[in-house]
Design brief:
The complex is a heterodimer.
Chain A: E1 16-24, E2 32-37, E3 49-54, E4 60-65, E5 73-75, E6 88-96, E7 101-106, E8 109-115, E9 133-135, E10 137-138, E11 141-142, E12 144-153, H1 159-168, H2 183-190, H3 210-216
Antiparallel strand pairs in A: 1-6, 1-12, 2-3, 2-9, 3-4, 4-5, 6-7, 7-8, 10-11
Chain B: H1 19-29, E1 34-38, E2 47-48, E3 57-58, E4 63-66, E5 70-74
Antiparallel strand pairs in B: 2-3, 4-5
Classes of the chains: A mainly beta, B alpha+beta.
């Protein structure tokens, strides 16, 4: 359970992405929750709620209402068989205002797209209430299983980014210091998050910034980036220089 | 965390391209406003740290950290069906 916070609320017009890995256990309740804000206890919040849940057909879906009544309500189609198959799966739900839609993915496969609208399309404040965010419970229906790498963004992630998460986890794209370098890449090469994209760490003297090294997939600590045996930067940065004369 | 899902084909990175393009691509892939992230990598305890912010999660009774770097929920089942269904 996570205490209520404005960071976890999505007013109308606010994009978001919910992402988690889940492996089912045995004997979960029916219509159980994976991630819920505003409908984890005994009643729907008047401020509306959002939740990822496993429905009675053991399929994943997003469910959200604008208030405590029955409507407006959006429920994505599920369509993914046997979500409770005891295997790890990645789930992502994206509200994308620019595209005008909500998308639901399982293992980075698009399961459903809902056009945003105020009647039944999720174009309303979601989770804007004083309730906590709860993992593994909806309406006191509990989920047995394993959760990993649960994450929330206040923007719509692209499919390409979700595919990186599916393959390598959230660490592959997380950027907690808000520079242009993923945390994982910084730690792999620098052991900390002190560098940014504009630096040329340790003055490896190849003429490439850390940002350029990242996008090229090269080592920011290696002077001879392109392995042409020219480490002296004659006439320009690495990748555009010439081999040393012998 | 270890990879859970079969990986897509590895991306091939090529050694060319302008700096401006490079930074634009970085912005589209790496820069995300991550507001909360629970790795569940703790070895023990009842609090899962939020690696992105200040939204630590308190584990409920029946939930434990597993050696696989995840949290295992072995929550109770309700003894009776609830009176209302969404």
């Amino acid at each position: 359970m996570i205490a209520d916070s404005a960071d976890l609320e999505f007013p109308q017009g606010q994009d978001f992405t919910l992402s988690l890995f889940f492996k089912s256990g045995e004997d979960s309740d029916t219509n159980n929750g994976l991630l819920s804000k505003g409908y984890s206890g005994g009643a729907r919040s008047s401020g509306g709620y959002y939740q990822l849940q496993i429905n009675a057909a053991d399929q994943i879906q997003l469910d959200s209402r604008a208030g405590s009544g029955s409507t407006p309500c959006v429920t994505t189609a599920s369509g993914y068989p046997a979500f409770t198959d005891g295997q790890w799966h990645h789930v992502a739900c994206v509200r994308d205002g620019a595209a005008g839609e909500i998308r639901l993915y399982v293992d980075c496969t698009l399961i459903d797209t809902v056009a945003l609208n105020a009647a039944d399309g999720g174009d309303w404040g979601m989770g804007v209430n004083a309730e906590p965010l709860v993992i593994g419970n909806h309406f006191n229906r509990y989920t047995n299983g394993w959760f990993d790498d649960v994450a929330i963004w206040n923007e719509a992630l692209s499919l390409a980014t979700l595919q990186e998460i599916c393959a390598e986890g959230v660490a592959a794209v997380a950027n907690s210091d808000n520079d242009e370098l993923p945390d994982e890449w910084e730690r792999d090469h620098f052991r900390d998050l002190d560098e940014d994209e504009f630096g040329d760490v340790l003055l490896d003297n190849d003429g490439l910034t850390n940002g350029e090294e990242y996008i090229h997939g090269t080592d920011p600590n290696k002077p001879d980036t392109d392995d042409d045996e020219n480490q002296r930067r004659r006439g320009g940065p690495q990748l555009r220089d010439r081999p040393d004369r012998r | 965390m270890e990879s859970r899902i079969p990986s897509p084909a590895p991306r091939r990175r090529r050694l060319f391209g302008s700096a401006a393009l490079a930074l634009a691509v970085i912005a589209s892939t790496a820069r995300a406003d991550l507001v909360a992230w629970w790795k569940f990598d703790e070895a023990s305890g009842t609090v899962a740290e939020d690696a992105a912010g200040e939204h630590d999660a308190a584990l409920s009774a029946g939930s434990t950290f597993s050696p696989a770097g995840a949290v295992l929920s072995t929550a109770r089942r309700r003894p009776m069906a609830p009176p209302e269904k969404s």
